[in-house]
Amino acid sequence: MKKMKQVLALCLCLALLLALAGCGKSEYVKNAEALIDAIGEVTADSGEVIEAAQKAYDALTEDDKAKVENADLLPAAQTALQIALEEKAAAELEALRQSFVGAWKAELDEIELLCQSVDSSLGDPRISFRDYLDSFVLTVMLEFNADGSYHMYGEAAASEATVAALKEAVVRFYDDYILLALCDTLAENGYGSASSWAEVESKLGTSKTNIIFSSLGMSLSEYVDTLFNEESVDQLFSAMNREGRYLVEPGKLHMSQSADEEPADGDYESFTLEGDELILTNFSGTSILEDLVYPMAFHRVG
Q1: CA atoms of 278 and 232, how far apart (whole Å)
Q2: Which residues of the chain have pLDDT under 50?
Q3: Could you tell me the pTM of the whole model?
Q4: Which CATH number fits domain 101-155+241-302: 1.10.275, 1.20.140, 2.40.128, 2.40.70?
Q5: Which of 88, 64, 73, 17 lies closest to 41 in space, CA to CA?
Protein backbone atom coordinates (compact mmCIF):
# COMPACT_ATOMS: atom_id res chain seq x y z
CA MET A 1 0.00 0.00 0.00
CA LYS A 2 2.78 2.34 0.92
CA LYS A 3 4.56 1.54 -2.33
CA MET A 4 1.39 2.21 -4.27
CA LYS A 5 1.13 5.65 -2.69
CA GLN A 6 4.73 6.42 -3.62
CA VAL A 7 4.07 5.44 -7.24
CA LEU A 8 0.94 7.59 -7.31
CA ALA A 9 2.78 10.55 -5.81
CA LEU A 10 5.51 10.16 -8.38
CA CYS A 11 2.98 10.12 -11.20
CA LEU A 12 1.34 13.28 -9.86
CA CYS A 13 4.71 15.01 -9.69
CA LEU A 14 5.51 14.00 -13.24
CA ALA A 15 2.12 15.22 -14.42
CA LEU A 16 2.63 18.54 -12.65
CA LEU A 17 6.07 18.95 -14.15
CA LEU A 18 4.74 18.21 -17.61
CA ALA A 19 1.91 20.72 -17.12
CA LEU A 20 4.33 23.38 -15.95
CA ALA A 21 6.61 22.64 -18.87
CA GLY A 22 3.67 23.02 -21.24
CA CYS A 23 2.83 26.43 -19.78
CA GLY A 24 6.42 27.68 -19.93
CA LYS A 25 7.62 30.23 -22.52
CA SER A 26 10.16 29.32 -25.13
CA GLU A 27 13.08 31.60 -25.93
CA TYR A 28 11.28 32.56 -29.15
CA VAL A 29 8.27 33.79 -27.20
CA LYS A 30 10.43 35.71 -24.76
CA ASN A 31 12.33 37.27 -27.64
CA ALA A 32 9.09 38.38 -29.32
CA GLU A 33 7.85 39.92 -26.07
CA ALA A 34 11.16 41.75 -25.57
CA LEU A 35 11.05 43.16 -29.09
CA ILE A 36 7.47 44.33 -28.58
CA ASP A 37 8.41 45.97 -25.29
CA ALA A 38 11.31 47.71 -27.07
CA ILE A 39 8.90 49.58 -29.33
CA GLY A 40 8.07 52.08 -26.61
CA GLU A 41 6.50 55.36 -27.70
CA VAL A 42 5.73 55.20 -31.41
CA THR A 43 7.13 57.93 -33.69
CA ALA A 44 7.64 58.22 -37.44
CA ASP A 45 11.09 56.66 -36.89
CA SER A 46 9.73 53.50 -35.21
CA GLY A 47 9.29 51.55 -38.43
CA GLU A 48 12.33 49.28 -38.10
CA VAL A 49 11.73 48.28 -34.47
CA ILE A 50 8.03 47.60 -35.15
CA GLU A 51 8.92 45.55 -38.22
CA ALA A 52 11.43 43.49 -36.20
CA ALA A 53 8.85 42.79 -33.50
CA GLN A 54 6.20 41.89 -36.07
CA LYS A 55 8.52 39.47 -37.86
CA ALA A 56 9.46 37.78 -34.58
CA TYR A 57 5.79 37.38 -33.67
CA ASP A 58 4.76 36.15 -37.13
CA ALA A 59 7.48 33.46 -37.03
CA LEU A 60 5.96 31.82 -33.92
CA THR A 61 3.70 28.82 -33.95
CA GLU A 62 0.06 29.40 -33.13
CA ASP A 63 0.58 27.91 -29.66
CA ASP A 64 3.53 30.23 -28.99
CA LYS A 65 1.64 33.26 -30.29
CA ALA A 66 -0.99 32.61 -27.65
CA LYS A 67 1.71 32.90 -24.98
CA VAL A 68 2.91 36.37 -26.05
CA GLU A 69 1.37 38.49 -23.32
CA ASN A 70 1.92 41.87 -25.02
CA ALA A 71 0.86 40.79 -28.52
CA ASP A 72 -2.03 43.26 -28.47
CA LEU A 73 0.50 46.12 -28.57
CA LEU A 74 1.54 45.22 -32.12
CA PRO A 75 -1.60 46.28 -34.06
CA ALA A 76 -1.81 49.41 -31.91
CA ALA A 77 1.82 50.21 -32.76
CA GLN A 78 1.20 49.67 -36.48
CA THR A 79 -1.76 52.07 -36.37
CA ALA A 80 0.21 54.66 -34.41
CA LEU A 81 3.09 54.37 -36.89
CA GLN A 82 0.79 55.00 -39.85
CA ILE A 83 -0.62 58.11 -38.17
CA ALA A 84 2.88 59.34 -37.30
CA LEU A 85 4.07 58.84 -40.88
CA GLU A 86 1.06 60.71 -42.29
CA GLU A 87 1.63 63.59 -39.86
CA LYS A 88 5.32 63.71 -40.77
CA ALA A 89 4.53 63.73 -44.51
CA ALA A 90 1.99 66.54 -44.00
CA ALA A 91 4.49 68.57 -41.98
CA GLU A 92 7.22 68.06 -44.59
CA LEU A 93 4.84 69.08 -47.39
CA GLU A 94 3.84 72.23 -45.53
CA ALA A 95 7.51 73.04 -44.90
CA LEU A 96 8.18 72.55 -48.63
CA ARG A 97 5.34 74.89 -49.54
CA GLN A 98 6.58 77.51 -47.10
CA SER A 99 10.09 77.26 -48.57
CA PHE A 100 8.72 78.50 -51.91
CA VAL A 101 7.11 81.65 -50.50
CA GLY A 102 9.05 84.74 -51.54
CA ALA A 103 10.71 86.22 -54.61
CA TRP A 104 13.02 84.26 -56.92
CA LYS A 105 15.22 85.64 -59.68
CA ALA A 106 16.74 83.93 -62.72
CA GLU A 107 19.08 85.26 -65.37
CA LEU A 108 18.36 83.02 -68.32
CA ASP A 109 20.58 82.94 -71.39
CA GLU A 110 18.18 82.31 -74.25
CA ILE A 111 20.75 82.76 -77.02
CA GLU A 112 20.35 79.29 -78.55
CA LEU A 113 16.55 79.58 -78.68
CA LEU A 114 16.79 83.06 -80.20
CA CYS A 115 19.31 82.01 -82.85
CA GLN A 116 17.30 78.95 -83.75
CA SER A 117 14.22 81.12 -84.26
CA VAL A 118 16.05 83.69 -86.43
CA ASP A 119 17.95 81.14 -88.52
CA SER A 120 14.89 78.97 -89.16
CA SER A 121 12.87 82.00 -90.28
CA LEU A 122 15.51 82.93 -92.89
CA GLY A 123 16.47 79.42 -93.95
CA ASP A 124 19.90 80.37 -95.31
CA PRO A 125 22.63 77.98 -94.09
CA ARG A 126 25.35 80.43 -95.12
CA ILE A 127 24.60 82.78 -92.26
CA SER A 128 23.75 82.19 -88.59
CA PHE A 129 22.73 84.74 -86.01
CA ARG A 130 24.83 82.82 -83.47
CA ASP A 131 27.94 84.36 -85.06
CA TYR A 132 26.73 87.86 -84.19
CA LEU A 133 25.62 87.55 -80.58
CA ASP A 134 27.31 85.74 -77.69
CA SER A 135 24.44 85.79 -75.20
CA PHE A 136 20.86 86.94 -74.77
CA VAL A 137 20.14 87.10 -71.04
CA LEU A 138 16.60 87.66 -69.78
CA THR A 139 16.01 88.49 -66.13
CA VAL A 140 12.90 86.63 -64.97
CA MET A 141 11.20 87.03 -61.59
CA LEU A 142 8.91 84.52 -59.91
CA GLU A 143 7.04 85.53 -56.78
CA PHE A 144 5.22 82.86 -54.76
CA ASN A 145 2.71 84.14 -52.21
CA ALA A 146 1.52 82.42 -49.03
CA ASP A 147 -2.08 82.43 -50.31
CA GLY A 148 -1.17 80.08 -53.19
CA SER A 149 -0.89 82.73 -55.91
CA TYR A 150 2.16 83.48 -58.03
CA HIS A 151 3.38 86.33 -60.23
CA MET A 152 5.96 85.97 -63.00
CA TYR A 153 7.44 88.89 -64.90
CA GLY A 154 10.54 89.96 -66.82
CA GLU A 155 12.71 92.79 -65.57
CA ALA A 156 12.97 95.16 -68.51
CA ALA A 157 15.24 97.62 -66.71
CA ALA A 158 17.74 94.90 -65.83
CA SER A 159 17.76 93.79 -69.47
CA GLU A 160 18.49 97.16 -71.12
CA ALA A 161 22.07 96.14 -71.86
CA THR A 162 20.79 92.88 -73.34
CA VAL A 163 18.41 94.72 -75.69
CA ALA A 164 21.14 97.19 -76.70
CA ALA A 165 23.52 94.33 -77.55
CA LEU A 166 20.74 92.57 -79.45
CA LYS A 167 20.03 95.66 -81.57
CA GLU A 168 23.69 96.08 -82.45
CA ALA A 169 23.94 92.40 -83.42
CA VAL A 170 20.78 92.60 -85.54
CA VAL A 171 22.22 95.57 -87.48
CA ARG A 172 25.41 93.66 -88.31
CA PHE A 173 23.48 90.48 -89.07
CA TYR A 174 21.04 92.12 -91.48
CA ASP A 175 23.85 94.07 -93.10
CA ASP A 176 25.50 90.78 -94.04
CA TYR A 177 22.20 89.10 -94.87
CA ILE A 178 21.20 91.89 -97.27
CA LEU A 179 24.63 91.66 -98.87
CA LEU A 180 24.18 87.92 -99.46
CA ALA A 181 20.75 88.49 -100.98
CA LEU A 182 22.05 91.22 -103.29
CA CYS A 183 25.00 89.08 -104.42
CA ASP A 184 22.57 86.28 -105.29
CA THR A 185 20.34 88.70 -107.20
CA LEU A 186 23.27 90.14 -109.17
CA ALA A 187 24.49 86.68 -110.16
CA GLU A 188 21.00 85.57 -111.17
CA ASN A 189 20.60 88.65 -113.37
CA GLY A 190 23.87 88.39 -115.20
CA TYR A 191 25.93 90.96 -113.29
CA GLY A 192 28.55 88.42 -112.30
CA SER A 193 29.67 87.36 -108.86
CA ALA A 194 30.17 89.68 -105.90
CA SER A 195 31.12 89.05 -102.29
CA SER A 196 31.46 92.49 -100.69
CA TRP A 197 29.60 95.76 -100.43
CA ALA A 198 32.35 97.45 -102.47
CA GLU A 199 31.76 95.04 -105.35
CA VAL A 200 28.01 95.46 -105.12
CA GLU A 201 28.33 99.26 -105.09
CA SER A 202 30.61 99.06 -108.13
CA LYS A 203 28.23 96.87 -110.11
CA LEU A 204 25.13 98.90 -109.22
CA GLY A 205 26.81 102.28 -109.45
CA THR A 206 25.45 103.52 -106.15
CA SER A 207 26.32 103.49 -102.47
CA LYS A 208 25.38 100.94 -99.81
CA THR A 209 23.47 103.69 -97.99
CA ASN A 210 21.31 104.39 -101.03
CA ILE A 211 20.75 100.69 -101.71
CA ILE A 212 19.46 100.04 -98.19
CA PHE A 213 17.44 103.25 -98.06
CA SER A 214 15.72 102.44 -101.35
CA SER A 215 14.79 99.05 -99.96
CA LEU A 216 13.74 99.98 -96.41
CA GLY A 217 12.91 103.67 -96.74
CA MET A 218 15.38 104.36 -93.93
CA SER A 219 18.83 103.37 -92.75
CA LEU A 220 19.41 99.90 -91.33
CA SER A 221 20.00 101.30 -87.84
CA GLU A 222 16.74 103.26 -88.02
CA TYR A 223 14.92 100.15 -89.22
CA VAL A 224 16.23 98.09 -86.28
CA ASP A 225 15.22 100.91 -83.94
CA THR A 226 11.65 100.56 -85.20
CA LEU A 227 11.79 96.82 -84.49
CA PHE A 228 13.05 97.39 -80.95
CA ASN A 229 11.32 100.58 -79.93
CA GLU A 230 10.15 101.14 -76.37
CA GLU A 231 6.71 99.72 -77.08
CA SER A 232 7.99 96.51 -78.69
CA VAL A 233 10.50 95.96 -75.88
CA ASP A 234 7.72 96.45 -73.33
CA GLN A 235 5.65 93.89 -75.24
CA LEU A 236 8.56 91.45 -75.14
CA PHE A 237 8.68 91.59 -71.36
CA SER A 238 4.95 91.96 -70.80
CA ALA A 239 4.54 88.60 -72.56
CA MET A 240 6.30 87.09 -69.56
CA ASN A 241 3.96 88.85 -67.15
CA ARG A 242 1.74 86.09 -65.79
CA GLU A 243 -0.33 85.52 -62.66
CA GLY A 244 -1.96 82.34 -61.46
CA ARG A 245 -2.25 79.72 -58.75
CA TYR A 246 0.40 77.24 -57.70
CA LEU A 247 0.67 73.98 -55.77
CA VAL A 248 3.81 72.21 -54.59
CA GLU A 249 4.47 68.53 -54.00
CA PRO A 250 7.83 66.75 -53.76
CA GLY A 251 9.63 67.28 -57.07
CA LYS A 252 6.63 68.89 -58.80
CA LEU A 253 5.60 72.55 -59.05
CA HIS A 254 2.13 73.07 -60.55
CA MET A 255 1.33 76.55 -61.91
CA SER A 256 -1.96 77.46 -63.55
CA GLN A 257 -2.16 79.47 -66.75
CA SER A 258 -4.20 82.26 -65.13
CA ALA A 259 -5.45 83.55 -61.78
CA ASP A 260 -8.95 82.28 -62.61
CA GLU A 261 -8.04 78.59 -62.64
CA GLU A 262 -6.41 76.04 -60.40
CA PRO A 263 -3.25 74.15 -61.39
CA ALA A 264 -3.87 70.96 -63.36
CA ASP A 265 -2.47 67.65 -62.09
CA GLY A 266 -0.72 66.86 -65.36
CA ASP A 267 0.88 70.29 -65.79
CA TYR A 268 3.96 70.76 -63.64
CA GLU A 269 7.59 71.81 -63.51
CA SER A 270 10.03 69.17 -62.28
CA PHE A 271 12.34 70.83 -59.78
CA THR A 272 15.10 70.50 -57.23
CA LEU A 273 15.34 72.84 -54.26
CA GLU A 274 18.48 73.24 -52.18
CA GLY A 275 18.62 76.16 -49.81
CA ASP A 276 18.13 79.34 -51.80
CA GLU A 277 18.51 77.73 -55.24
CA LEU A 278 15.46 76.50 -57.12
CA ILE A 279 16.16 74.69 -60.38
CA LEU A 280 13.32 73.95 -62.79
CA THR A 281 14.65 70.95 -64.71
CA ASN A 282 11.81 70.26 -67.18
CA PHE A 283 8.05 70.35 -67.55
CA SER A 284 5.18 67.95 -68.16
CA GLY A 285 1.94 68.80 -69.98
CA THR A 286 1.84 72.55 -70.56
CA SER A 287 3.88 75.23 -68.83
CA ILE A 288 3.96 79.02 -68.59
CA LEU A 289 7.73 78.70 -69.12
CA GLU A 290 7.77 76.23 -72.00
CA ASP A 291 9.04 78.86 -74.46
CA LEU A 292 12.24 79.20 -72.43
CA VAL A 293 15.22 76.87 -72.21
CA TYR A 294 15.51 74.33 -69.40
CA PRO A 295 17.03 73.92 -66.86
CA MET A 296 16.36 77.29 -65.20
CA ALA A 297 18.16 78.26 -62.00
CA PHE A 298 16.32 80.71 -59.72
CA HIS A 299 17.87 82.26 -56.63
CA ARG A 300 15.93 83.59 -53.67
CA VAL A 301 15.98 87.36 -53.38
CA GLY A 302 13.39 87.89 -50.68
Answers
A1: 30
A2: 1-2, 4-22
A3: 0.70
A4: 2.40.128
A5: 73
